[in-house]
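Worked example 2:
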Amino acid sequence: MIKEVVIYGAGGHARVISAMAKDLDKDVRCFFDEQEHEEDTSIVPYQQHIYPDALMVLAIGNNTVRQRLADTVSHGFTSLVHPDASVAADVEPGAGTVVLARAVVQANVQLGKHVIINAGAVIDHDTIIEDYVHIAPNAYIGGGAHIEKGVVIGAGAVVSRFARVKANTVVPPLTVV
């Protein structure tokens, strides 16, 4: 079982991922970020030789940046599911996917790579969530929906059953699709 984790990102989402990793008994070894952080020595620019055996989580909310980083870093990726999330036993999150506290992922959901299922989001049965999607807090995705690559579903938005959201679409908060 993987114990050491490195996190790419140093903002608010990275702090949430770090807290979740610690809740899961993981050792967060460092944070990678390209911006200078003189006050915090645990934040360093990315270098492949730093903790090369640790697995990485890309804690970057921007889908495009997350994809670019996934294509360029040499570390392997791990998925993290918060202990207070409910994920059906038949769901296997893709590499680098995170499921945050109080999220619900029902049966027969397909979760792609580097997906963010944020706090309190609900993904109903038989849904497909492609790679690099961000489902914001308290959003609801109805059964049988298909969320294509790179989509952002805003906070509190509702995607109806069997709806299809096209690649790279941004669904505003509190919107019904």
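The mean pLDDT is 95. The chain has two domains: 4-72, 80-177.
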